[in-house]
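All the exercises in this workshop are built on plain-text protein records. An example says more than a description, so a record of this kind follows:
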Amino acid sequence: MGKAVRKVSFEEAELSDIEYWKSKTPEEKLDTLQYLRELYYTLKNESRKGFQRVYRIIKQE
């Protein structure tokens, strides 16, 4: 099987991307998002910290 190359404009590529994601289910989109997040954390050597806690002390009178 040979490789095929097709040149497209940026507009055509963008439309193709939009149609691709429209064809995916919400579960597939979330799975892809989670995969990209995990990949980002791995590449940045960051642990998954979660949300930072912010506390304020309010003086009551």
